[in-house]
Amino acid sequence: MALPDSCILTPITFSSAAFVLNVTTGSNPAEDLTFGGSLNTAGRYYWTAGDGQADATTDGGLGDLAVILQTALNTHTAGGGETYSVAVSSAGVFTVTISSGDFSLNWAAGSTTLDGTIFGWGATSVTSSGSALVAPNQAKGWWVPAKPTGPDSRERQPIVGGTRSTISGITKSTQLGTPKKTRTLSWQFLPKAKVLEESEAATEPFGSFEYNWVNSISAGDRFRYYVDSATRSATSFGLYRTRNMLDPMIRNDQYRVLYDVNLTVREAGA
Question: Is the pTM of this model over 0.85?
């Protein structure tokens, strides 16, 4: 049985401002749809996971941007009763579907204030050819090495304390505490497009490990590690922070055109 491909997700944060997306549903006039809730809370974590988690302050923020986008789209006032749904693939690609007819996401409209690149679109308005619209690019906040993790130390429990010995050789130990667990995650034989920002694939403009390391992980953000990129639920990930600032990206010793990523982390959940 083949091991599943793993992935890392880094959080999306917003400034304290109102966000609007201009949308055309069917043949109806375009309308501005406002994103409600705490999306306007500066610094709150949001994720492009597609796991359906509601917005909450837990662990810095849990809100799933797929369900937040879906909720905003379904505030439209078109008269046909159409409903929108939003899904995210195991490669981090968004798909928006409408129950009937077609629609347009007007990212280029003057009233749109939401950044389309977060969801895999740019600043260009796009129209579905039928009931579904697939983003051309991977969403922000994803690193998909397209292979299993290995080696993986698994979570290890460090001990704070010490030992001492008497002259006669009797040894005593004192355990002062058990801090959050540590882990080392490694990926080997990666092409440079998955590692270096300068070599990112055109369809993964924020998808290199370097981009996520520089802009999120090394800045102290919590990040999610999924053993299986196709299985993303409220309980299927580990939440971690980096343990040091050492560069985790190195050339593979055996194949110099390939790279390894060795990430040392500590649990970051509540």
Answer: yes
